[in-house]
Design brief:
- The structure is a single chain.
- The N and C termini lie far apart (about 45 Å).
- The chain has a five-stranded mixed sheet. Strands 9-12-10-11 form a four-stranded antiparallel sheet. A three-stranded mixed sheet has the order 3-2-4.
- Helices cover about 40% and strands about 25% of the residues.
- The chain is built from 14 helices and twelve strands.
- The longest helix is centred in the C-terminal third of the chain and has 22 residues.
- It is an alpha+beta fold and about 350 residues long.
- A hairpin with a 4-residue loop joins strand 5 and strand 6.
- The protein is globular and about 60 Å long.
- It binds thymidine-5'-triphosphate and magnesium ion.
- Thymidine-5'-triphosphate binds next to strand 1, helix 1 and strand 3.
Length: about 350
């Protein structure tokens, strides 16, 4: 496999600079109210020199840089830029998995056969993005997703890093473990307690120590990733949801009870629709969107179809809990869908 990971540079801030070029030389923060409880969505590279980072409170950002310019996020504008970016990318590399508003994976081996040519295509992608929107992006090219992702972040802004096949483990080794996708704050602390600070040290762990530090499948997956081994293919098109409802909230919601209540309410709508069509569904999917626009979905497939709101709601809530265990945090959106539809009472008729 030859895959690229692309991530736009200081995305929201870069868009605001394009819309108002006078901002370009100033420390710019896109986020909430610096006099309220707002947080930084992103900052341009001028502001980052003051130590300002995404998710920092705006009040703290203001303390670090009193002359900073604060602007509120304009998501509709960012979505338009994002759409222009991704259609420009698709004209160079047709097969892409968009994983967020400003990032995704590109299947390069559909277009080229080796890493030398892959570098040229990655450069062409950067040029296409810049040509269509004036935005700059950073890319990493490698034989698997995890290495491409680390590489795209390594030389921001405007970076292009190619890690040829065979060099994966050596490339990753010096990075701090937290840079490895999948290593969260908890894993980082556990590893640090055992003196494991670099990806190379994680890669070198023997089974027993790995098991005691990161038990179960997680440990094995992360050690493989640390070694530059990552079998994940591009996810092309989430499973088609035949019937679904979703809701974007006024404000991000963190309370699980509220999220469950939303899902159960939507399950009633989905069940009504199924009943009207005289169908039942074997697969239930819960979709969630995080404040950074990342989308996850979790599905479960049953041996027999269901069509009642309560069962669909129960399953949807359990899938939500699973998604939140994998990635906790408040949500911008939840949705419930059903697919794998079959005629109602198919079993009785058979
Ligand atoms: P990122 O790609 O993480 O950040 P970035 O593009 O601003 O900067 P970088 O050059 O380091 O890639 O996120 C993309 C956009 O998502 C970002 O511009 C704003 C939004 N975002 C938030 O709203 N909150 C957050 O905590 C993060 C990390 C991002
Ligand atoms: Mg980015």
């Amino acid at each position: 496999m030859i895959v690229a990971h692309l991530d736009l540079d200081a995305f929201f801030a870069a868009v605001e600079e394009l819309e108002d070029p006078s901002l370009r030389t100033k420390p710019l923060i896109v986020g909430g109210d610096p006099r309220g409880r707002g947080v930084v969505a992103t900052a341009n590279y001028v502001a980052r020199r003051f130590g300002i980072r995404s998710a920092m409170s705006c009040a703290e950002a203001l303390r670090r840089c009193p002359q900073a310019v604060f602007v509120r996020p304009r998501h509709t504008v960012y979505r338009q830029y994002s759409q222009a970016v991704w259609s420009a990318i698709r004209e160079v590399v047709p097969t892409v998995e968009q994983t967020g508003i400003d990032e995704g994976y590109l299947q390069l081996d559909e277009v080229v056969a080796d890493f030398l040519a892959a570098r040229r295509v990655a450069g062409a992608v950067q040029a296409a993005v810049r040509g269509s929107t004036r935005l700059t992006s950073s890319l990493g090219v490698a034989s698997c997703k995890v290495v491409a992702k680390v590489a795209s972040d390594a030389r921001k802004p405007g970076g292009l890093t190619v890690v040829p096949a065979g060099r994966e483990a050596a490339y990753l080794a010096p990075f701090a473990v937290r840079k490895l996708p999948g290593v969260g704050p908890k894993a980082e602390i556990r590893l640090a307690r055992a003196g494991i600070e670099t990806v190379g040290q994680l890669a070198a762990l023997e089974d027993p120590e790995l098991r005691s530090l990161l038990p179960g499948k997680v440990g094995l997956v992360l050690r493989d990733r640390a070694r530059g081994i990552d079998p994940r293919p591009l996810e092309l098109g989430v499973e088609r949801i035949s019937i679904s409802q979703e809701e974007t909230f006024e404000r991000d919601i963190a309370e699980t009870e509220l999220l469950h209540a939303e899902l159960r309410r939507m399950a009633v709508g989905v069940a009504d629709y199924l009943e009207r069509r005289g169908e039942c569904a074997r697969t239930v999917t819960t979709k969630v969107r995080y404040p950074d626009f990342a989308i996850r979905s979790r599905s479960t497939t049953l041996p027999a179809g269901i069509d009642d709101a309560e069962t669909i709601g129960d399953l949807a809530c359990r899938l939500l809990d699973r998604a939140l265990r994998d990635r906790p945090g408040p949500l911008r959106l939840v949705g419930v869908g059903v697919s794998n539809l079959e005629p109602f009472r198919q079993l009785a008729l058979a």
